[in-house]
Design a protein that fits this description.
Layout (H helix, E strand, L loop, with lengths): L6 H15 L4 H7 L4 E10 L5 E12 L5 E8 L4 H17 L5 E8 L7 H15 L8 E5 L5 H15 L20 H20 L7 E5 L3 H12 L4 E9 L4 E6 L6 H6 L9 H6 L3 E4 L10 E4 L20 E3 L8 H10 L2 E3 L1 H4 L2 H15 L5 H26 L3 H19 L4
Helix pairs in contact: 1-3, 1-14, 3-14, 4-5, 6-7, 6-12, 6-13, 12-13, 13-14
Amino acid sequence: MSKTINAFEMAQKQFDHVADLLSLDPEIAEVLRWPAREFSFRIPVRMDDGTLRVFQGFRVQHSDARGPNKGGIRFHPSETFDTVRALATWMTWKCAVADIPLGGGKGGIIVDPATLSTAEKERLTRAWVKNMWRNIGPRQDVPAPDVGTTPQMMGWMMDEYSTLVGEYTPGVFTGKPLGGGGSLGRTEATGYGVIYTVREAMKHLGMDPKKSIAALQGFGNVSQYAAIGFVEMLGGKVACVSCWDREDRTSYTYSHPEGCDPRFLLSITDQYGMIDKAQADAAGYIREDGDAWISKECDVLIPAALEGQVNGDSIKKISDRVRIIAEGANGPTTPEADEVIKEKGIFNIPDFLCNAGGVTVSYFEGVQNDMNFYWSEKEVLDRLDEKMTVAFKNVLNMSEKEGVYMRDAAYMVAIGSVVKAMELRGWV
């Protein structure tokens, strides 16, 4: 993410714009443009070599008007308080637009998890819980995995919380491993959710999926399953994916003359989304600069990495062929880039609609934890498809009814839902 882009300022700017469109009461707007609660804490951890290292941890709870706060925990070396604030805010809108009875939260630790041993990661995750356990819970705030965290880490966190409260509490964290309270379909959920919305956008635009080409940024969990879904569900072709290479300290774009094989790339990708370049080279993949993905000749662009990647500079590089931008990442498009997208007439699927599949199945996981009864993978994915399709159509209908950009329409749906909940609870 560019150092000049502040994610929280971007989130507030997007909100303020739609608040004006809605003629939202300024007092209500002031409540919603800031998180309700914020936590910042230092986490001392004993490392394997005996040294004591201190990490910075965060948790932000934006709004619980519609239900318990919900949102992931990031382990990232560039994490900031403002990034966490932005992501918590977007989670509120994401849950609302998907009609999930949850609010918005987000957490993080400033750390590169790839530099930690398994034992160090476990100590760090448990220590995060020790700082936050009084302020999280199945009816209060339900964290989940995000960039740099894994199902196993959620399992450790759930166990630590259960130990501290004195009872088995699987619903306090979602994204847990299968067999440890996790849900089938959770791994694929965000990426497949992206594809469900792309499919609906193609129907709306009269596009043939089988003749379509997609370019993806990133190759973490979201991009992996979005790429698989684009090929296997839609019958399209993936022109390229990109990833950060920790060894070379740079990003690369990987493409193939015959189109990328997402399953093969997944087989040579580590848990942090880094593709093995030697194996990719041997398989005939072309390795280019990390920014090359955005200039590919394609029909669908799927930014699925970090915030602010589609900005005033990078948007100038996109092909005139592009008809859809599907935001697999949170906050990938800056307001400046939005204006260019509008001018070009590109159909945008905004982030908190497009990537709502993960939180939707996280909600399903919590429901299953409460029932102590677990659904089949088909049940989970069928329910996810239904939720995502309804959410897409609601936003599209709002866009057409009000004659507004899809992002503005998604905000209108989400803000309206949250304000209604606040009114019904007597908050305003």
